[in-house]
Amino acid sequence: MTGPESEREPAAEPVPESVHGSGPSEVEGRRRRAGRWLRSRRAVPTALVVAALLVAAGTLLYDVVAVRAGGQARPWRRELSEQLATRHLDDPWVLGIAGGAVVLGLLLLWLALARGLRGWLALEPRGAAIHRTAVAALIARRAQHRSDVHSWQVKVGRRRTRVTLTGTTDAAGAERELRAELARIPLAAPHRLDVRTKPVHERHHRRELAELEPPR
Amino acid sequence: MSRRAVNRTLLGLVGLGLLAGGALVLLGGLDAYRHLGVTPPDWWPLTSPDQPVLSEASRTRWTDRDWWWPVAIAVPALVVAGCLWWLFSQLHRGGPAGVDLPSPAASGEPHFALHVRSRAVEEAIEAETVALPDVERVTVKVTGAARRPEVRTAVRLAPGADTGALVTAYRTGPVEHARRSLGLAALPAQLRLRGAKARRERSRKKAPRVQ
């Protein structure tokens, strides 16, 4: 049922393959930039920063206006200005707070610049994305359906997928099948697939093997 | 500017400010300028470890100027106003209640203003998407504004789904039909695919019983 459809999909866009031969680095760069539209909105960290800014600026504004209207500065502000005027730059408290500010600033800068949405992989027509667990489920299902595979482990990273199969007798065939399964997913960025095969440790799995292959 | 750009710009500015302030204090406090043999320019603040963080003199340096008090009140007031604006715009996140259809009549002529509830659009797209092959569950949300709506769709894939065919079918089917029936020039659509959790049944493939 899926045969003709999966045949049609690669045939619909043969352009990347043919262009790939002429200028691989250029196309590679374009494909690397393919998922850039998929960026996190950063709602939660910004809400925290805005809440902190609001509290700080609101308190300061209230106090400045109160002083301007003829009142007294609050004790916290007098205390703060006194501490700032008496503590020197090599005071451990000053150094500690400055170090904390540097770390927090780096964290916020990283949040501002990093792509985010690390669980999602961009798909080929702009606007579609697939979760990494869904890719893992598709590949694991294909591995599960091979009769010679005893157990499998699928780890889908952001740029590469690692599959470990145990007990397969036809490693090349299994790898070809998994590669075909991954190729059915129209991922926008280049994605590697590493397939490793391991022999079954008979000592530990003798009972399962006996179930799989009853003694003749 | 989109909300995402606003958020990221805000995070970047606050992060840069914290980083610059902390680095200045650390450089001065650890006496890095002398160790590195660098002489900062005259106006450079916080150069010596023996100076206070903010001395009485530098705190009150500008208090007698005309512009000082207006600025000292306006800057926190602007920050508070900006934060409140951000909070209220975030509270508005439910998306438009409905979609305004472009009027077929020329401007100036009498015409009906047509308005479709967002829920109706969502249900139409959901019903058509869930009928596509390999789709188990669909949630559609109309976002954007009433005049230029956008669609966000979350799909749970059936096991062994053909993802490429599904993405194409979603574009050419439900979204295109909704765009055409709403009479819009463009209907940007986002699609998020999730799978059912990979079930790790440890290959309990029972051998067929042979008589």
Description:
Chain B: The chain crosses the membrane at residues 67-88. Chain B: Keywords: Membrane, Transmembrane, Transmembrane helix. The complex is a heterodimer of chains A (216) and B (211). Chain A is an alpha+beta fold. Chain A contains 9 helices and 5 strands; from the N terminus they run ααααααββαββαβα. Helices cover 56% and strands 12% of the residues of chain A. In chain A, the strands form 2 sheets. A 3-stranded mixed β-sheet of chain A has the order 3-4-5, with helices on one face. Chain A has a two-stranded antiparallel sheet with strand order 1-2. The longest helix of chain A has 26 residues, at 43-68. Chain A is elongated, with a radius of gyration of 29 Å. By secondary structure, chain B is an alpha+beta fold. Among the domains of chain B are: 1-54, no CATH class; 113-195, Cation efflux protein, cytoplasmic domain (Alpha-Beta Plaits), CATH 3.30.70.1350. Chain B is built from 6 helices and 5 strands, in the order ααααββαββαβ. The longest helix of chain B has 27 residues, at 3-29. Classes of the chains: A alpha+beta (216), B alpha+beta (211). Chains A and B meet through helix 1, helix 4, helix 5, helix 6 and strand 2 of A and helix 1, helix 4, helix 6 and strand 5 of B.
Helix and strand arrangement:
The complex is a heterodimer of chains A (216) and B (211).
Chain A: H1 3-12, H2 15-22, H3 24-32, H4 43-68, H5 75-86, H6 92-113, E1 120-122, E2 128-131, H7 132-144, E3 151-156, E4 160-166, H8 171-183, E5 192-198, H9 206-212
Parallel strand pairs in A: 4-5
Antiparallel strand pairs in A: 1-2, 3-4
Chain B: H1 3-29, H2 32-36, H3 56-59, H4 68-91, E1 98-100, E2 115-117, H5 118-130, E3 135-144, E4 149-157, H6 163-182, E5 189-195
Parallel strand pairs in B: 4-5
Antiparallel strand pairs in B: 1-2, 3-4
Helix pairs in contact in B: 5-6
